[in-house]
TrEMBL record:
<feature type="signal peptide">
    <location>
        <begin position="1"/>
        <end position="30"/>
    </location>
</feature>
<dbReference type="InterPro" id="IPR027268">
    <property type="entry name" value="Peptidase_M4/M1_CTD_sf"/>
</dbReference>
<feature type="domain" description="Peptidase M1 membrane alanine aminopeptidase">
    <location>
        <begin position="315"/>
        <end position="460"/>
    </location>
</feature>
<keyword id="KW-0645">Protease</keyword>
<dbReference type="InterPro" id="IPR014782">
    <property type="entry name" value="Peptidase_M1_dom"/>
</dbReference>
<comment type="similarity">
    <text>Belongs to the peptidase M1 family.</text>
</comment>
<dbReference type="Pfam" id="PF17900">
    <property type="entry name" value="Peptidase_M1_N"/>
</dbReference>
<keyword id="KW-0862">Zinc</keyword>
<dbReference type="InterPro" id="IPR006311">
    <property type="entry name" value="TAT_signal"/>
</dbReference>
<keyword id="KW-0482">Metalloprotease</keyword>
<dbReference type="InterPro" id="IPR001930">
    <property type="entry name" value="Peptidase_M1"/>
</dbReference>
<keyword id="KW-0378">Hydrolase</keyword>
<dbReference type="InterPro" id="IPR050344">
    <property type="entry name" value="Peptidase_M1_aminopeptidases"/>
</dbReference>
<keyword id="KW-0732">Signal</keyword>
<dbReference type="Pfam" id="PF01433">
    <property type="entry name" value="Peptidase_M1"/>
</dbReference>
<keyword id="KW-0479">Metal-binding</keyword>
<dbReference type="InterPro" id="IPR045357">
    <property type="entry name" value="Aminopeptidase_N-like_N"/>
</dbReference>
Length: 476
């Protein structure tokens, strides 16, 4: 929304009215006192994630990375709006900072809360609703830092990939690090000449100097900070268009030849998997798609927006690609409201793996649900996790994935195919580009189906016990 200045005559009238009101004894409105923005956005699992008082629109990251030294240096320009009158505000950032400016003016800064919070104090308070450009200059070794028990920098002397969840951004750019604040991410990474850089979105340009090359990537759509990534090293790249959707995949040359060939075969399945997902979920939500297989060993794959990242898993693990690409809808386009809602990401991605299986000659999703149910004893810890609120230490527990997928197939059994898929499509359409919470999904399912699903969701999501095998629970 554009803010327009009042004409001078209207300002005079307004000032006169205020003066008359004061003379008449009307109470004067006290000016808001600038506050220090909160060090967290309000997520109970990680109270320091995100920050109060700011809304980021764009990150422009411009860094130089030394593969041999693991040194990262450069600047990030954060374009933000103050959402309250601020004397100071924070960004989540772990690296050593040498300079901060706000609106081109040098600002004071300090590190707090174990070095995770970069507290910035501008020369003048920021008024609520005002827009600002914050430039942070830094130089450090990301592998020396940790937060919340995580040391997330994955690098060798020949390759690096910035991928992790729920935290990754603070190891390479200052951020309002929570899914509630999505922003456009524009990345320039300079590496030694001859090395490639892969990141989210589209390659906007490449500039080659005598000893180095700068790669410029930009994603068109806003994303949660943890979904932003870059990888640098030696890669084999393939690209094309499938039904009008541009795709680009990359595989690390650091892999053995057989692994490299198998990984490229798997990555090239990406556009076909997206087309298959669209049949159930509607149009793919972003302007490009792809994937990257690293030669490092992260131990997991991750749904980085537009371009998931993978370890080498062979050519036949299509279900993993299905899982990460399903996240482009569930987790990326519709992000969690708080991390307690993570089952909406992982449960749906797991369920879409089952859906792939049943449409490609394997067991039906219902058979997979009943196999889980029949073969998991009621005393198992699997049933003791509260899926809708697993706690920070179990946020990626197998039950969040497995019971989440089971709950969705059970809902499908309860509602029938036509209504179930209408619920799913309605959820995606109404939450598109935003965030979703468990209670909102439950309300959508009840509204679209016309059924009272309170007891169903209580059994599947909030009760730390095995649901009864009843028709109401989708198990009749």
């Amino acid at each position: 929304m554009t803010t327009r200045s009042l004409p001078r005559t209207l300002l005079s009238v307004a000032a006169s009215a205020t003066l008359l009101a004061g003379l008449a004894g009307a109470p004067a409105t006290a000016a808001a006192v600038p506050v220090d923005g909160a060090a967290g956005i309000g997520d109970p699992y990680w109270p320091l994630d995100g920050n109060g008082g700011i809304d980021v629109s764009t990150y422009k990251v411009d860094v130089r990375y030394g593969l041999a030294t693991k040194r990262l240096r450069g600047t990030t320009t954060v374009k933000l709006t103050a959402t309250e009158d601020l004397a100071s505000f924070s960004l989540d950032f772990l690296l050593d900072v040498s300079k901060v400016t706000v609106g081109g003016k040098k600002a004071a800064f300090t590190k707090t809360d174990g070095g995770h919070e970069l507290r910035i104090t501008p020369t003048q308070p920021l008024a609520a609703g005002s827009k600002h450009s914050v430039v942070v200059t830094y130089d450090d070794h990301p592998d020396r830092h940790s937060y919340a028990g995580e040391k997330n920098w994955l690098a060798s002397r020949t390759e690096v990939v910035a991928m992790n969840e729920p935290h990754m951004a603070p190891w390479w750019f200052p951020a309002n690090d929570h899914p509630l604040d999505k922003a456009v991410v524009d990345v320039k990474v300079t590496v030694p000449q001859g090395r490639e850089v892969i990141a989210n979105g589209k390659l906007k340009g490449r500039t080659t100097g005598k000893r180095s090359t700068t790669w410029h990537w930009r994603a068109d759509e806003p994303m949660a900070p943890y979904l932003a990534f870059f990888a640098a090293g030696d890669y084999t790249i393939a690209k094309g268009k499938h039904r009008g959707l541009p795709w680009l995949v990359a595989v690390s040359d650091g892999l053995a030849p057989a692994d490299r060939a198998a990984s490229m075969k798997l990555m090239k399945k990406t556009p076909q998997v997206v087309s298959w997902l669209e049949k159930d979920l509607g149009d793919y939500p972003f302007s490009v798609v792809g994937g990257l297989t690293t030669g490092l060993n992260p131990g997991f794959a991750l749904e980085n927006q537009t371009r998931p990242t993978y370890p080498a898993v062979g050519s036949s693990n299509t279900s993993l690609v299905v899982h990460e690409l399903a996240h482009q809808w569930f987790g990326d386009d519709v992000a969690v409201h708080h991390w307690s809602d993570v089952w909406l990401n992982e449960g749906f991605a797991t369920f879409m793996e089952w859906r792939w299986n049943e449409t490609h000659g394997g067991r039906s999703a219902d058979r997979i649900l009943r196999s889980y149910y029949d073969n998991t004893d009621a005393a198992s810890d699997f049933w003791k996790v509260v899926v809708s609120d697993p706690g920070a230490d179990k946020v990626f527990d197998s039950a969040v994935y497995g019971r989440g997928g089971m709950a969705l197939q059970a809902l499908r059994n309860r509602l029938g195919d036509e209504v179930f898929w209408k619920v799913v499509r309605t959820w995606l359409e109404e939450q598109k580009g935003g965030n979703g919470a468990t209670d909102e999904f439950e309300a959508t399912a009840a509204r679209v189906s016309g059924q009272d699903l309170t007891a169903f969701f209580e059994a599947w999501l909030r009760t730390p016990a095995k649901p009864a095998a009843t028709a109401d629970n989708g198990l009749g």
